Each structure stands twice: as C-alpha cells, then as structure tokens.
C-alpha cells in the first residue's frame, strides 16, 4: 500500500507516461506513418504515388530534389527541402515519386510521414529514428502551414537545425506548403505592426523557412503544359484519343474546375480512362 503522497504521485505519473517505443523492424516496409497515442510507426505496404517520369512541368525541381535525395541516400551531405507554391502542381507527388525511384537501388532509404498535428511529438520520433543508423529516413510533412496562434512551428525548428542534439545524421526533412514562409502574409504583417521591435518579430516567424536549404517553387501551369501532362498520361497507359477531342474535353474540364494544374489534368485523365474502360 502506498501511503506517502509523493509515492502516489510518482505511481500516477508512471501510469500516465507511455512505455518506451521498441525499435521497429525497418526491413518490414519502405514507408511508415508516425502515429501517437500510443507512439508507433505504422508500416505502409503500398504507397500511393505516380511514376517519376509522369510528373511533367516540374523538371527543374524534380532534378534538384532527385540529386539532393540521392546524395542523402549515399550518406553524403544533403539539405532539408521546402516545396512551396500552387496547389495541385505535384509537390507531395514529387517527394513520394523520388523515394519510389531511389529505394529500388537504396534499400536503406525509408520515408516516414509526419502529420502536422503531431509536430509536438517530433522529438520522440527522432529518438526512434536515431536508433537505426544504418537506415536513411526522409521525414515527410505534407501541407505544412501555421496560423497566428500556432506554436507547432517551434517544434519544427528543432528538427531543422536547433536543439542541443540536433537532427540525426540519418534523417532529412521534406515539407510541402502553399506558402513560401509557411505562414500567411497577414500574420507576418500583423506581427510587424504590433510588436515592440517589428523586425525581430518578423524574423522569428520567417526564420523557420530559412532553415530549409532548398526552396523549390511550384507555379501554376499554362495551357500547353496542362495538355502535355494529359497527353503524357495517355501515352503511359495506352489511352487513345485524337488531338481535337482531347483539346476540347480537357479545356472544358479545367474550365468547370476553375483552375488548371497537374491534379486537374490527372482527374480529367482518370475520367477519360474510365470512359474507355482502361485500368490505371
């Protein structure tokens, strides 16, 4: 029986504290998703991605990120990367496609998805990944952004280059965002207008994106790029359609969506392939 109040408090804290996470079997899969409550790395048997050569209109970003990732897989210096810009232009698809292209030759290259809401637990995740020095981990955070009252960005700073331990040598961070500085412009302007020292307040906010060694911009495609994307999908999957019909249908499709992007091109192609009875 526990009589001492301090003993009761210690026992309660021990029940509340999660047990240390066993080192996962990283040979079980090439991709994992970090889950909390309790902490665990869930293996992903099949990653949803498209082949790298089907990502058209982003060749410069593709080549840069591919070279950076290959260096990392080889154990050479490489940079954290922020992929920012227009929605639907293949930012997250590029990260997954590059991992898929390289993990065939570099079996030690793994990808771990970290959800934005789980950023406060990133220190615990890094401790797990640090225990597997023979593996190389792309820590992937998709659709990353922060609001004015969001303090999660401070957790991310430690991953990039802060903290006494620093980022493990076998971990690199790739993040995607619609915002170049990860925070809305009005938030930055508000900080500038309300702070005692405006420049210091803004520096605190934008210094997060500065910690990424690579900034890769993705911009809205023009009509020729949009049609070329669809034509590339048709060639890859054997879908036959004449140019006039493709042009008329694809332009109408993007007009009804109110935007033109790689995502819209893929959605039209899925509809086209389905009408023709072609499996993809």
Give short descriptive properties of this protein.
alpha/beta, Rossmann fold, 2 domains, seven-stranded mixed beta sheet, 10 helices
Structure in words:
- This protein is an alpha/beta fold.
- It is built from 10 helices and 7 strands.
- Strands 2-1-4-5-6-3-7 form a 7-stranded mixed β-sheet.
- It starts with a helix and ends with a helix.
- The chain is elongated, with a radius of gyration of 22 Å.
- 45% of the residues lie in helices and 13% in strands.
- It has 2 domains: 26-218, Rossmann fold; 223-276.
- The mean pLDDT is 84.
Distance between the termini: 65 Å
Total count of helical runs of at least 4 residues: 10
User: How does the helix and strand content classify structurally?
Assistant: alpha/beta
Give the C-alpha Rg: 22 Å
CATH-level-4 superfamily name of the largest domain:
P-loop containing nucleotide triphosphate hydrolases
Helix-strand topology string: HEEHEHEHEHEHHEHHH
General shape: elongated
The percent range for strand residues is: 5-15%
State the CATH topology of the largest domain: Rossmann fold
Report the CATH architecture of the largest domain: 3-Layer(aba) Sandwich
Low-confidence stretches: none
How many DSSP-defined strands? 7
Question: What is the domain total for the residues?
Answer: 2
In the sheet with the most strands, the strands line up as: 2-1-4-5-6-3-7
The top-level CATH class of the largest domain is Alpha Beta
Average pLDDT over all residues: 84
Work out the helicity level: 40-55%
């Amino acid at each position: 029986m526990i009589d001492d109040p301090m003993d009761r408090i210690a026992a309660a804290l021990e029940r509340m504290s999660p047990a240390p996470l066993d080192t996962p079997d990283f040979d079980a899969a090439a991709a994992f998703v970090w889950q909390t409550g309790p902490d665990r790395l869930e293996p992903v048997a099949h990653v949803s991605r498209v082949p790298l050569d089907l990502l058209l209109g982003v060749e410069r970003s593709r080549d840069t990120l591919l070279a950076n990732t290959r260096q990392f897989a080889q154990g050479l210096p490489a940079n954290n990367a922020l992929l920012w810009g227009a929605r639907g232009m293949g930012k997250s698809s590029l990260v997954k496609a590059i991992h898929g292209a390289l993990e065939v030759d570099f079996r030690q290259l793994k990808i771990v998805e970290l959800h934005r809401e789980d950023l406060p637990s990133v220190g615990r995740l890094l401790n797990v990944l640090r225990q597997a020095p023979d593996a190389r981990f792309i820590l992937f955070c998709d659709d990353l952004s922060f609001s004015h009252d969001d303090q999660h960005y401070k957790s991310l700073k430690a991953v990039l280059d802060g903290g006494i331990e620093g980022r493990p040598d076998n971990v690199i961070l790739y993040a995607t965002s619609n915002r170049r500085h990860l925070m809305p412009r009005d938030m930055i302007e508000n900080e500038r207008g309300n702070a005692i020292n405006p420049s210091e307040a803004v520096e605190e906010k934008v210094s997060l994106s500065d910690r990424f060694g690579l900034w890769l911009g993705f911009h809205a495609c023009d009509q020729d790029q949009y049609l070329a994307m669809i034509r590339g999908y048709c060639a890859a999957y054997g879908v036959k359609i004449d140019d006039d019909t493709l042009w008329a249908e694809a332009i109408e499709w993007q007009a009804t969506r109110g935007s033109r992007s790689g995502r819209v091109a893929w959605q039209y192609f899925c509809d086209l392939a389905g009408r023709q009875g072609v499996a993809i």
